[in-house]
Amino acid sequence: DRVFSRPGEPGCLVNFRPKYENFIGNQWIPPVKGNYFDNISPVDGKAFCKCANSTSEDVEVAIEYAYRCWQSWKRTSAQDRAKVLYQIAQVIEDNKEKLAVAEVWDNGKPIREALSEDIPDAATHFRYFAAAIATQEGFLSEINENLVAYHFYEPLGVVALIIPWNYPILMASWKLAPAIAAGNCAILKPAEQTPASIMVLMELLVDVIPPGLINILTGYGPQVGKPLALHPKIKKVAFTGETTTGQEIMKYVSQNIIPVTLELGGKSPNIFFEDVASENDEFFEKAVEGCAMFVLNQGEVCTCPSRALVHESIYDKFVEKLISILRNIKQGNPLSMETMVGAQVSSEQLEKIRYYIELGKKEGAERVFGGNGKKVVEGQLQDGYFIEPTIFKGDNKMRIFQEEIFGPVLSITTFRTEEEAIKIANDTSYGLAAGVWTRDNSRGYRVCRQLEAGRVWLNCYNEFPAHSAFGGYKKSGFGRECHKIALEHYQQIKNIIVDY
Ligand code: NAD
């Protein structure tokens, strides 16, 4: 277990700077207007550093450095770009503990998750895209006896990457790795709730990356994200965040007619057929644990399985098991290796979750577990943003079934037939992910194919391999990350036709 030492105290593994300027051209450059905001840790509700409150003036500075770097980076061979990505991966791996602790203070997530998933996965993404770019090939088409059409993959230029707060370093890696591998330079804007951990990473990367390849501007969406996305020198926006923000981003990119990828919200259904509970075996355990994943990362996961659809014949047995699992989940100090559920990212997020818990009660949903609002964690963490998990049983038409809560709140409903399950699952404006659990493979396949979601897990949940394309249907966005096809979202194709 990590000693509970606040940033700045002896024993804290990370030496956060008291004040972070922007990271531009491998330097720390103060915001032009000189303003900073307090970065508050969800672990204890106290500020632990300040970060630049950037504006459009800072966007200009970052673009200048990024654009300059791009003049040489775009000419760098794919093999040399791959080398830089491998080095980044190595730095992440060598500093795993430090980065995990930084992530805990910034986001409130449990250290065991950060150490076993977030940070190693970030390194994997850089390695994966290093290999992907090193092996990518253009192609040619033979048109007729004389004409040959060549196709070359070319980078776009300086790209804007705007990310949310739930997986700060991992979300940055999902975008940075394909963007720079493809030959672009990047300006990344982390979420204002979690601006510090990425800065800890950048401090470690100074000697590894050319100046201007990766630039970080901290601050708020409308003040810095918007001018960044609107800037005429930005050649692509990759955005992850809420659907409503995604709608704004689409308006911005229409100004300069640039490509955009949007990874947005979700309200993912997790379907449990009757055969799941036919025996009290490992499969049944695994399935119910798959349902309990609604508490993973405090429910702040875009693919959070927030709607469970359980066959009515197994409902009682299923819920009994689910509750016994939840009772054994340790929640509290995220720096303890035993902790499985940490703190919500911000007081606003905590209030939003409480609002939905009250709404569920008002809508007439049955309270199956929890539902009491804030969880009291004693001592130094008493002001942290902890909340106990909650389960409601209700109807898919209710708002708690339709709106993304982004917290540890599960809405369960029952179904009788396969057709009904598919209908309920698809009755949502989102289409990010879904889960299906059954011992019957052909039913599993059949149902997966009918679900309106970009990612479906059959008999598993929340697996995120780097070589598996991830992205949404419907209002969950478009474009794919995490597979080599993501490279093409950061490239354009030059076609040269030659008459020999
Ligand atoms: P958000 O939309 O509020 O913010 C995301 C980012 O956009 C932040 O950096 C924010 O500062 C910036 N932003 C806000 N307004 C902006 C504007 N007008 N112009 C430019 N930038 C702006 O989202 P959030 O609350 O940080 O994150 C939670 C959301 O992210 C959830 O909806 C979740 O489902 C989604 N998410 C999706 C995926 C996915 O892959 N589909 C992954 C993680 C999170």
Overview features:
single chain; 500 residues; alpha/beta; seven-stranded mixed β-sheet; six-stranded mixed β-sheet; 14 helices; binds nicotinamide-adenine-dinucleotide; Aldehyde dehydrogenase domain-containing protein
Question: Can you give a write-up of this model?
Answer:
One of its GO terms (molecular function) is oxidoreductase activity, acting on the aldehyde or oxo group of donors, NAD or NADP as acceptor. Belongs to the aldehyde dehydrogenase family. Keywords: Oxidoreductase. This is Aldehyde dehydrogenase domain-containing protein. InterPro entries: Ald_DH/histidinol_DH, Ald_DH_C, Ald_DH_CS_CYS, Ald_DH_CS_GLU, Ald_DH_N, Aldehyde_DH_dom. The strands form six sheets. Strands 15-16-17-14-13-19-20 form a seven-stranded mixed β-sheet, with helices on both faces. Strands 10-9-8-11-12-22 form a six-stranded mixed β-sheet, sandwiched between helices. The chain starts with 18 loop residues before the first strand and ends with a strand. Helix 9 packs across helix 10. The protein is of the alpha/beta class. It contains 14 helices and 23 strands. The structure holds nicotinamide-adenine-dinucleotide. Nicotinamide-adenine-dinucleotide binds next to helix 7 and helix 8.
